[in-house]
Amino acid sequence: MSQGVISPAIGGFFFKSRDPKSLARWMEDRLGVPFGTQLYASFLWKTSPDDSMTGRTELGLFQQDTDYFSPSTTDFMLNIRVTGLFQLLDQLQSKGATVLDQTQSFEYGHFGWVLDPDGNKIELWEPNESGFGDLPAQTVSSRMTCDGIGGVFLKSRQPDQLSNWFREMFQLPMQGTMALFKNYPVNGTVQQVQVFSIMKEDSSYFAPSAQQFMLNFRVPDLDVVIRELKDHGETLVGEPESHPQGKFAWVLDPEGRKIELWQPA
After folding, report:
1. Which alpha helices (H) appear in the chain, and where do they start and end?
2. CATH code of the domain in which 87 resides
3. Residue 140 domain-assigned?
4. pTM (2 decimals)?
5. Which range of residues forms the domain containing residue 67?
6. Cβ within 8 Å of residue 165, ≥6 positions away
């Protein structure tokens, strides 16, 4: 069996919060992130328009004192979908990666963990989509519901080195310090993109947030989202911008994290 990344999307992104319940409600009310009554949101996608199987990208919020990210001391954890997990872990160890001893198996897949060169804990997931049964992703009835996680951006002391590590260890399709994952919405035929990018520690792109990461959410109509945010008393960070890739705007969550909103072109 071959080992490596098989997914056209990031498996998930998890981060710590001072008040996960309140933050989940804020993200649902303001941005349409489909948390429902949970502290996780699932975004479904397909590898091709006519694919009968769906995959998912998870977003999860955790308490500050969680030990799930240990032994890393950072506030976030990236999940990467892989195949041949146990063989991959042996391969990573032979390459000198810091592989954690524990693995776990559930109906929805096998899990293992590794530390990247910056000390961030990376979760490796060999998924079993049928293990989710008929449980659908959370949905929010809103015209501004986000389409999914459009990107995950991380800071690093050595972006080139960390990017090379992800390329070598997991065969991530890194072009420089960026990887593009391409998939399709469950009920659509237009290809969508998910970005994974590693930036310099002193990057001003995250400002005024002091966090080491930033999330990007795809939205169908940025103007509607901006109007809803202003109606709720939220203030944008800077002015919206238009680029060949689409329209962008930024907002701070209640705990000071910068969030990028993206209406693709």
Report:
1. 20-31, 85-94, 159-170, 222-231
2. 3.10.180.10
3. no
4. 0.92
5. 4-132
6. 116, 117
